[in-house]
């Protein structure tokens, strides 16, 4: 397939004109056009040769993190009209992280597929991708990358900072704290509800550096949004202003034929990995970024996260790795300040093209300098070597660990042996899925103590279709009451980006497809070595071979038609959790109005 097709066809006419203005084919043109007139568009407008711009609307009452986009779309449309385009807003399959069962990760793919069909099959010359809640960003970027018409990201922005009893209360992160207080009988049901709700004081997505703010920052680092877009809080006036500017810009992008494949290059992905480390991004970002790269045709692997990301220092002081929330991050300069500082340290490809039409280096050159508190200078970070560790061993081929959330207490408890400072051995406690974890974590017969490692399996893309955010398991209540608030956890599922749990997760291949975790038994000894980046079951090769020979995989129970389809086609988290057959469809823009 070629890499240089575009929104314009061979004669230089806009793609939409093949539908709406083809004098050689009046029958079809009339048929295409008449229904778009029925709500008030005029034939003159639609046949004027002005770019037709889609607004991919991810907000709805079911998707409250993105709901604000319903209002923002008005400003996007103002910008599109002002620049001479015609806006057509259309709905995208909702993805709500907190509301969807069994997991919103299943819907990333459904939403992606839906967007591909819309962009491929309707007369749009360019598209504004409204993003926000976790999976909306990768779904929209991968869809636009696949079809390859000019596209620009508009995030809805984080919620205002939450407060509870005078302290900052960050989305998700406060939940983990409130659960510990509830488990320790320090608060009751009502206070638990109030405490958790306090973190959501306004429209917008999670205000912590969870998956949403991480992925929107990454979209900006990829060059796919206007500079500064990611961090502006949803209710701020600048959010409406950047919606307007984004609408204006996409029209010119169509005229310049600036497509996603021209922006999302290998260099852009390397920039994104470096920024992800510096902001303390969610552990969901590696699979999402790899999936976008695969759909755009850039070769990106988990090892690239180790190679380009691990030794980057943590510059952004936001929860869960730090203290602040989205408002402070925005006021301190957001992604442009982080990138400007990383440029000074020689960590960013400054020439990477962006949606502004200018290279990344120019976009961020006038950003404020770090304030030394919310955004730290490169030489005075919150932590060195703060990127993901990419792990291997005899239980899985790959898994990731977010080093920026390994607390000093955790280091003291597990990594304090002077002879072997980066390793520890623990007794495995194995749960088959979150249901078993919840029903058995307080079971005294498991005899869980501070020398245990909690494992969870059956939670990868195939096992728990989509892959569940469950690896950050809380210790049993009796340990919490003794002040042991976290144990090492390992699993083939994911964990919330808002969690500060020192987990090893996204283990691939997962247990459901016969990965090594399927062989593990409660009581096994497992060695974790962070320096060698290995997790190993301490058992002989013969023992492991015997367990493999006896292994019988549990039967998968599908609950919906989509789950069955998805499980048959999906790959592992290490490869982005894509539908494997889908990645070959690249640059498929349809430039003719004829079927
Ligand atoms: Fe939607 Fe966090 S739950 S952004
Ligand atoms: Mg999440």
From TrEMBL:
Region span, Disordered: 351-375
Keywords: Iron, Iron-sulfur, Lyase, Metal-binding
Dihydroxy-acid/6-phosphogluconate dehydratase C-terminal domain segment(s): 373-576
All copies of domain Dihydroxy-acid/6-phosphogluconate dehydratase N-terminal, residue ranges: 50-363
Pfam families from the UniProt entry: ILV_EDD_C, ILVD_EDD_N
InterPro entries (alphabetical): Dihydro-acid_dehy_C, DiOHA_6PGluconate_deHydtase_CS, ILV_EDD_C, ILV_EDD_N, IlvD/EDD_N, Sugar_Degrad_Dehydratases
Feature: compositional bias, Basic and acidic residues: 363-375
Gene3D superfamilies: IlvD/EDD C-terminal domain-like
Similarity annotation: Belongs to the IlvD/Edd family.
Entry-linked PANTHER family: HYPOTHETICAL DIHYDROXY-ACID DEHYDRATASE (EUROFUNG)-RELATED, HYPOTHETICAL DIHYDROXYACID DEHYDRATASE (EUROFUNG)-RELATED
Name of the molecule in the record: Dihydroxy-acid dehydratase family protein
């Amino acid at each position: 397939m070629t890499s240089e097709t575009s929104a314009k066809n061979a004669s230089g006419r806009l793609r939409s004109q093949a539908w709406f203005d083809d004098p050689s084919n009046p029958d079809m043109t009339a048929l295409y056009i008449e229904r778009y007139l029925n709500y008030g568009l005029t034939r003159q407008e639609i046949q004027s040769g002005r770019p037709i711009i889609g607004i991919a609307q991810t907000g709805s009452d079911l998707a409250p993190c993105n709901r604000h986009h319903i209002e923002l779309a008005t400003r996007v449309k103002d910008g599109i009209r002002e620049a001479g385009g015609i806006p057509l807003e259309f709905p995208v399959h909702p993805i709500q992280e907190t509301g969807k069962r069994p997991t919103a990760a299943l819907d990333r793919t459904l939403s992606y597929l839906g967007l591909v069909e819309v962009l491929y099959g309707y007369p749009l010359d360019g598209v504004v991708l409204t993003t926000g809640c976790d999976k909306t960003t990768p779904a929209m970027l991968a869809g636009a990358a696949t079809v390859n018409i000019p596209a620009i990201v508009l995030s809805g922005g984080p919620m205002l900072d939450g407060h509870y009893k005078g302290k900052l209360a960050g989305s998700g992160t406060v939940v983990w704290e409130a659960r510990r207080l509830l488990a320790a009988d320090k608060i009751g049901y009502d206070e638990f509800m109030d405490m958790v709700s306090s973190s959501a004081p306004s429209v917008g997505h999670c205000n912590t550096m969870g998956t949403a703010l991480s992925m929107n920052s990454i979209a900006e680092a990829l060059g796919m949004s206007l500079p500064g877009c990611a961090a502006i809080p949803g209710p701020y006036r600048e959010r409406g202003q950047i919606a307007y500017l984004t609408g204006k810009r996409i029209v010119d992008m169509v005229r310049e034929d600036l497509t996603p494949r021209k922006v999302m290059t290998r260099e852009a992905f390397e920039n994104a990995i470096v920024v992800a480390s510096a902001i303390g991004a969610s552990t969901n970002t590696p699979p999402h970024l790899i999936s976008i790269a695969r759909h755009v045709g850039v070769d990106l692997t988990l090892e690239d996260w180790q190679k380009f990301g691990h030794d980057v220092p943590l510059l952004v002081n936001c929860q869960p790795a730090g203290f602040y929330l989205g408002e402070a991050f925005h006021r301190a300069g957001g992604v442009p300040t982080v990138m400007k500082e990383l440029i000074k340290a020689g960590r960013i490809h400054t020439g990477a093209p962006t949606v502004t039409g200018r290279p990344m280096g120019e976009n961020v050159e006038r950003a404020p300098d770090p304030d030394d508190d919310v955004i730290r200078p490169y030489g005075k970070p919150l932590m060195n070597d703060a990127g993901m560790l990419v792990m291997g061993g005899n239980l899985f081929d790959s898994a990731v660990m977010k080093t920026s959330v390994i607390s000093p207490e955790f280091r003291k408890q597990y990594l304090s042996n002077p002879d072997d400072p980066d390793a520890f051995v623990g007794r495995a406690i194995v749960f088959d899925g979150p249901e078993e974890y919840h029903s058995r974590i307080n079971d005294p017969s498991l005899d869980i103590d501070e020398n245990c490692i909690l494992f969870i399996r059956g939670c990868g893309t195939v096992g728990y279709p989509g892959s569940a955010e469950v690896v950050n398991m809380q210790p049993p209540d009796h340990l919490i009451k003794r002040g042991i608030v976290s144990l090492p956890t390992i699993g083939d599922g994911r964990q919330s980006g808002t969690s500060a749990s020192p987990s090893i997760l996204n283990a691939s291949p997962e247990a459901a497809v016969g990965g090594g975790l399927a062989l593990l038994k409660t009581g096994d000894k497992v060695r974790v070595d962070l320096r060698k980046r290995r997790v190993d079951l301490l058992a002989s090769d013969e023992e492991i071979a015997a367990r493999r020979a006896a292994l019988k995989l549990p039967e998968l129970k599908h609950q919906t038609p989509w789950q069955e389809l998805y499980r048959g086609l999906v790959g592992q988290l290490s490869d982005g959790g894509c539908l494997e057959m889908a990645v070959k469809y690249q640059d498929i823009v349809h430039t003719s109005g004829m079927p």
